[in-house]
Amino acid sequence: MDRSSRARCFARVPNSIGEHVGFDQLLDAFAEGEALVANTSVHGVELACEDAGEATFDTVLFRSCQFDGVDFSGCTFRDVRFESCRFTRVSMERAWLNRCDFISCSAPGLNLLSSRLAGVLIADSDFSLANLSETSIDQLRVTSSRLREAALQSVRLKRCELKQSDLVRLDVFRTPLKGIDVSSCEFSAPVLSSDYRELRGARVSPSQALELASLLGVEVADE
């Protein structure tokens, strides 16, 4: 990870952190229930259909790991960085993510329903069809990523930064975008309330404004 990428990160995880936990140790921790996995890196582990047992992950680097059908519901992730990881049919419902980074990850359909996010970076990653509805978000940074058709319904959203990302058909029903700048993103055909109130106060580009005006039945005349 280059210096500019590190500057964008929230997670306080040193790149030199040692690898002390492998596949067997993770399974043992999950079996305990509400276990603590801390101060370690985990490389190349493949987990399938495991229940993390509401574990707490504190100061952990996951690198090149694959999670297939893993249930992280109710887990706590504090100072955790995921690098080049793949998430398939994974649930993080009701999880708490505090200072977490997703770098170059594939996480289509990741379930974060009713979770709490505080200081989360999504960079160069695919979160298409992810479910972030009914979450509480304070400081989310998304850059060069895909959130195509992701769901952000009824979200309490504070300090959100969206840059150069694919937000096509983003579902923001009952999530106000006031103060959110989507002008550098691909933002079209959002899912909105019938009165489009979610868009009030959002910052858009001129071309986006023209497209969104069509939702109101407005025709923009040529000069």
UniProtKB/TrEMBL annotation:
Which superkingdom is the protein from? Bacteria
InterPro entries with a match to the protein in the record: 5peptide_repeat, PA_immunity-related
Name-wise, this protein is Pentapeptide repeat protein
Q: To which species is this protein native?
A: Collinsella tanakaei YIT 12063
